[in-house]
TrEMBL record:
Lipid bilayer topology: Multi-pass membrane protein
Keyword Transmembrane helix: yes
Identification of the protein by name: Protein-serine O-palmitoleoyltransferase porcupine
Annotated catalysed reactions: [Wnt protein]-L-serine + (9Z)-hexadecenoyl-CoA = [Wnt protein]-O-(9Z)-hexadecenoyl-L-serine + CoA
Organism expressing this protein natively: Hymenolepis diminuta
GO biological process: lipid modification; Wnt protein secretion; Wnt signaling pathway
Enzymatic class: transferase
Length: 439
């Protein structure tokens, strides 16, 4: 070592006891009297002043304000629905009272959903509201178009009528506007909600066009104002407006009917919602803990271990969003309608299944169980209508729409297209094996 640099250093300003407090290196003896520096001391896990319970509590405090206000809004909406049901039972001649109550429930959904958008996003909620109101005008004006404008053929051709294309064009405009003209931080905040609203708009327009073409009385008998309020109530539904999950427009209309018992399933939904909230909190705590120890552990400094821990932290943050949206969907009372099999168990994965994602049997398990509602939406509205062009083009178009919904991100699009190609190869493995054997 070169000690010449110490000749000009003045130690006169330091007291002897000052040197006793300097513990820069872990100094130990090797038995020969010579000292050595332990290089691993820099990679020890940091000792936090707070205990693990305090760490968990700090995470709960951060997420609890968003949880409780959403739960309260969902329960208030459900209370209104129970009161309206009870009133209809007591009235002998309801006349148009059921329609009035249905409109009031839709108005409550719009009010509560707008309140949640303002709570989560501030002034950014105005842009999302403008999109919802514009799509509502297009969908509600479908009665003025002739149902014979469809390209005759099979049933899937109805899905590509020009009103559906117009709604899809509005969704693309929303994506492009947010991608190129909004602040990146603001767009990152509202991207999930914009994706849910776009999925609802496309599915509602497809269902509306099919019902109009087949003269379904559920849609043809609805007036302009009634359908407009139904769409707005569906889009602003407080149980799914922020994080989802997506469910179809006809399922919302069925859940919005004032029939059946008022409070018979309340206890079951409360317990299921509490269990989902607990799992969501456990996922976000684990995700945050992994993020906090990535730079503090020596073993996590290895490249592949670090990459795995970072990816698992991201996945568990997704599980938090999935179980949080599932809890809100159960709290508002829609889970029994959109997922009837959920009545068979207190713990049912309605949005995501972490076990099948972390320990998959195939790549298809990851694709399906990552987000059940989005998988169903892509299958119904993208994959099946485009399957006439072939298996591979349908898969590529499905993942192209999926990447577009998530935003214009090259890395994400590359990952999604890779998953699509790998899934196609896995699906056609026996056929590829036969071709390889022949040649």
């Amino acid at each position: 070592m070169n000690f010449d640099v110490l000749e000009d250093f003045d130690f006169s300003d330091y007291l002897p006891e000052d040197f006793g407090s300097i513990k820069k290196f872990d100094y130990y003896s090797n038995g020969n009297g010579a000292g050595n520096v332990d290089p691993y001391v820099f990679y020890d896990v940091q000792q936090y002043d707070e205990s693990f319970s305090a760490f968990c509590w700090s995470i709960i405090i951060q997420v609890w304000p968003n949880i409780w206000i959403t739960l309260v809004v969902c329960f208030v909406w459900r209370t209104f629905k129970g009161i309206f049901r009870y009133t209809l039972k007591r009235v002998s001649t309801p006349n148009h009272l059921s329609v009035i109550f249905e409109v009031l429930l839709n108005c409550a959904s719009v009010a509560f959903g707008t309140l949640l958008l303002w709570h989560f996003f501030g002034d950014l909620y105005l842009r999302l509201c403008a999109f919802v109101f514009t799509v509502g005008l297009i969908l509600s004006s479908l009665n003025f178009f002739s149902p014979n404008n469809s390209t005759s053929g099979d049933g899937n051709s109805v899905a590509w009528r020009y009103p559906v294309v117009l709604v899809t064009f509005c969704c693309l405009l929303l994506q492009f506007y947010c991608e190129f003209f909004m602040d990146p931080r603001d767009w990152h905040m509202v991207r999930g909600t914009a994706m849910i609203l776009a999925m609802k708009a496309v599915s509602a327009s497809t269902l509306r066009a099919q019902g109009q073409a087949s003269n379904d009385p559920t849609f043809t008998s609805m007036s302009f104002l009634r359908h407009y309020m139904s769409w707005c109530g569906y889009a602003f539904s407080p149980g799914s407006v922020i994080f989802g999950p997506w469910f179809s427009f006809d399922q919302y209309l069925q859940a919005n009917k004032l029939t059946g018992p008022s409070f018979s399933s309340l206890f079951r939904d409360l317990l299921q919602s509490a269990v989902s909230c607990f799992i969501a909190c456990a996922c976000i705590i684990y995700s945050t803990y992994l993020s906090s120890i990535i730079q503090a552990s020596y073993f996590l400094s290895f490249r592949w271990i670090n990459a795995y821990v970072q990816s698992q932290s991201f996945r568990f943050s997704h599980y938090f969003v999935g179980f949080f949206s599932q809890a809100m969907h159960q709290a508002i009372g829609f889970a029994a309608v959109t997922n009837p099999k959920s009545r068979q168990s207190w713990i049912t994965a309605l949005v995501t299944n972490p076990i099948s994602v972390e320990l998959p049997r195939s790549l298809v398990d990851v694709v399906v169980h990552w987000n059940f509602p989005m998988h169903i939406w892509l299958k119904l509205h993208i994959y099946k209508p485009t399957r006439r062009f072939g298996q591979l083009p349908a898969i590529l178009l499905t993942y192209a729409f999926s990447s577009l919904l998530h935003g214009l991100n090259f890395q994400l699009a590359a990952v999604l297209f890779s998953i699509g190609i790998y899934a196609y190869i896995e699906f056609g493995k026996p056929r590829f094996s036969l071709i390889w054997f022949i040649f």
